[in-house]
Design brief:
binds N-(5'-phosphopyridoxyl)-D-alanine; D-amino Acid Aminotransferase, Chain A, domain 1; single chain; 284 residues; elongated; D-amino Acid Aminotransferase, Chain A, domain 2
Length: 284
């Protein structure tokens, strides 16, 4: 038996429910969710879940798609429509769907999905036996080497950069620049050395980064792989970003302070030329 689910104002069969591939929940994890337990057809701790839902939406500046009263009615209705006795109601609200861009538009309408899951909430055999657990380093989210769609923070940071009149953001950690919003960051020191952060789990292993390092070394440009500080970047001769979407992008100001003479630098241009020449010739 299939469930009846809720999708943006409609009750539809679970096999018919479709969300766009451009939904920001899918592309950027730009969404929030709640799970409310149901026992004997009744919502457990509903007020707390509804309150947190409001807090989560407010934190992300996603509008509440329905009124508080309607939200409770929807919860009750989905339980009734699915004759759910015990289990839970899963609810997810994303910022909505539009063409992929870290920056989102004001026109977006949230995507609102609800479905039920049947489960014997009060009859859990593990309550008797207990469960086994293992410890792991806290990693939410330190595994930046994995190219996941967990891009919410990057998206929010880029929006804030835009509000501040900037084009992108440089992320810092313990005074060191980790990466830009969606690209790797590099500097050229006053003595012409290309400095870029060494690979670790703290940054995405950029394909463009690897290529420009190879090309720079082949062109006898000195390369150092080490962390560099915000001050070093602000006082560098040149700063640039690399990614598959922007190739080699000069940065001319950081926090309103010009880098070098405030114009794109010559080594940045040379590296971009090397990259374009070599990689386009080898494009397949
Ligand atoms: N972003 N660092 C981050 C956090 C990135 O998101 C990206 C790419 C890079 C550069 O990796 P590469 O050189 O392999 O593209 C570094 C892509 C372009 C994006 O999200 O649009």
């Amino acid at each position: 038996m299939t469930r009846t689910v809720y999708l943006n104002g409609d009750w539809v069969d679970e096999t018919e429910a479709r969300v766009s591939i451009f939904d920001r929940g899918f592309l950027f994890a730009d969404a929030i969710y709640e799970v409310t337990a149901v026992v004997g057809g009744k919502l457990v701790d509903y007020a707390g879940h509804a309150a947190r839902l409001k807090r989560s939406l407010a934190a992300l500046d996603i509008p509440m798609p329905v009124s508080e009263e309607a939200l409770l009615t929807l919860h009750r209705e989905i339980v009734a429509r699915n004759a759910l006795s015990d289990g839970g109601v899963y609810l997810q609200i994303s910022r909505g769907a539009e063409d992929r861009d870290f920056l989102y538009s004001d026109a977006l309408r949230p995507t609102f999905v609800m479905f039920t899951q049947a489960r014997a909430v009060l009859d859990n055999p593990k309550w008797k036996t207990g469960i086994f657990v293992v410890t792991m380093p806290e990693g939410r989210w330190v595994n930046r080497q994995i190219k996941t769609v967990q891009l919410l923070y990057s998206s929010l940071a880029k929006m804030e950069a835009k509000r501040q009149g900037a084009d992108d953001v440089l992320f810092t950690e313990d005074g060191v620049i980790t990466e830009a919003g969606s690209s790797n960051a590099h500097i050229v020191t006053k003595d012409g050395t290309l400095v870029t952060r060494a690979l670790s789990n703290a940054l995405l292993h950029g394909i463009t980064r690897a290529s420009i390092l190879d090309l720079a070394r082949a062109a006898q440009i000195r390369v150092e792989e080490r962390g560099f500080t915000v001050d070093e970047a602000k006082n560098a001769a040149e700063v640039f970003l690399t990614s598959a979407s922007a190739f080699v992008m000069p940065v001319v100001a950081i926090d309103g302070q010009p880098v070098g003479n405030g114009k794109p630098g010559p080594l940045t241009a040379r590296i971009r030329d090397l990259y374009i020449e070599d990689r386009l010739a080898n494009a397949i």
